[in-house]
Structure formats: structure tokens, C-alpha cells
Amino acid sequence: MTDHAVFATTRRVLLVVVVVIQLGLTLPVLVTHSREASWVAFVLLSSVLVAGFVAELPAVIALPGTALVLVASILATTALPHAASFGPADWAFGLVGWYVLLLLIERPKVAMAALAAHIAFSVAWFLHDGNGDLGTAGVVILSGTSLQIGVLVMTRVLVRDARLAAEAAAEHDAARTREELARQREQDLRTGFAGQLGAVLPLLADLADEVVSAADEPTRLRCSVAAVQLRRLFAENDEVPDPLLHELTACVDVAERRGVVVSLAVSGTATPVPTEVRRELVAPMAQALAAADGRAKVSLLRTADEVRVAVVADAPGVLPDGGSPALVTVETSVHSGLVRSEARWRTT
């Protein structure tokens, strides 16, 4: 239950309490002890009650309504017969307190201030009028206000519990969301690894069955390609500020371990690139580095409209087939022992 729901429910209950007291208990007393100012006070309170029925959110009438209620309290109190304060004829004392709660249940400090002002004026008039029973006055004040203050405190407790329950529910939902995201991420990782291993496993099987030999140049090229692809896959799942550059650097590192001298040039600021696009941007460069023998130059160019990954490498052998990319444009050429490859992705 939300704060709004707690206040709305409490206000409905208070509305019923006010109606019952005003029509069932107050009206007969008013008819018996009828004075013009008392009827004016009764009409003022009734107008606030009607506004409470009509308005879905009494906040719009809270402050002016409270002012009318306090004016009605003054009129009803000053219209009492001599020495009648806190007696049967004092119909407004308890009723005004319930009106204050009805209007200010969401504002406990203002409600307490309004109740204090109401009680202070009633006590001051009691002392001014004189000849009243102090014991009876004390009992009436204590019994009436303690119940009303108890309702105010109980409402605040309910609001606190509702907030704690909402926070606990939100934390539970957040934990479930994190768990689901972690599960999905793990599944994606497994799928990605399975896809990469799908190219490695046939190679391992061929080596194990001695279908191919590690001494053959095509086999060494296949091994080099597999190493670069796996290293890029590991880098893909790292949490870094610039994932694309991180994956390029990982591929460069594998080539350098093989003895290839690689230079990496980067231009432009980091641009968000989806994972699938990064894979297709890096793949041609990874293929070229896997086949490189000697030197290679890798370039990363990023503008507002385009991301380019280019490579020029010594590649005396034939490049392996990298497949047909769907998200980027790739241009590759091999001539005179050099391979030139460029992958472009339009950001817009």
C-alpha cells in the first residue's frame, strides 16, 4: 500500500466519523441549544464537509477549509450558554478536532498546530466564562484530543510501514531483475563461446585425428585465426570505457605475441557501438592480423557519422573466409604480399 492509499483510506474513515458525529450527535444538541451564531458555525462546518465529499484530493481545500473550521469553532464556543464549555451543549469541541484531522491528515505538524489553537481558545473561553467544572473540562479535553492524536500517530505509523513495505518490494524486484540480467548475461556468454568454439573444435578434431598437421601453413593459419577470435571474445566481455578499442588491442596483442610488429593509430572520441557491430568491425582486422607475417598497421577512425577499422599487413598467404557481414561494409584486397581491409559502420 502506498502513502496515497493510506491517506485516502484514513480520510474516508474520518469522513464517515464526521458525518455520524455531526448529523447523529451534534444536530440534536444544536436544536436544543439553538443560537444564531451556532447555526452559522454549523453551516460553515457543513460546507467544508460537502467540499470533502466532492473533492477527491482535499489538499486543495485543506488550508482554507481549516481556517473555516477554526472560525466555526470560535463562533460555536462564544455562542455557548454561560458556564457550558466542555459540557453537553459544547457540541463543537470534539467535532472540530475531527474536521482538523479530515483536512490535515497528510500534514501532521499543521494538524497539531490547528488542534492546539482550537484547544487553547476553548480553554481560554472556559476560563473567561468561569463557573465551569475543572474536572469535567479536563476529562473532556483529555478523552477527545487523545483519541484524535492517536489517530494521527497511527496514520503516521501506517505510512511508515507502507513505505518500508514498498522499499522492500522494490529491492526484491531489483534483486530479481539483477538475477535475471546475470542469468541472461551468462547465457549470452555461453552462446558466444559456443559460437567461437564451433570454429575451433573442428580444428582440434582434425589435429587429434591427424587429418591435418601443425607443420602445414594452412593449419597454422587456422590456429592463428582461432587464437585471435578467442582473445577478442574474452575482451568482448570486459567492463571497460572503450570496448571497441579494447577488443582491437586484444587482437593486436595476440599478433604481437606471434612476432608481428603492429602499430595502432586511433582518431576520434569513443562512440557507443553495439556488440554485434563491434564483432563485425573487428573480424576483418582479426583475420588480417591472423595471417600477418612481419608488420601490420591498424587504424581506428571515429567521427560523428561513421566508425572505421582499417588494417594493412604483410600477408603472403591467402586470407581465411570471414563470412558476409550484415551490419557493416567491408572492403578487402590482397596484392603483392599486402592485405588491405577496411570495415565501416554508419552511426546514423
TrEMBL record:
The chain crosses the membrane at residues 12-31, 37-54, 61-80, 86-105, 110-128, 134-154. This is Signal transduction histidine kinase. Signal peptide: none annotated. Keywords: Membrane, Transmembrane, Transmembrane helix. It comes from Lentzea atacamensis. It comes from the Bacteria. The keyword Glycoprotein does not apply.
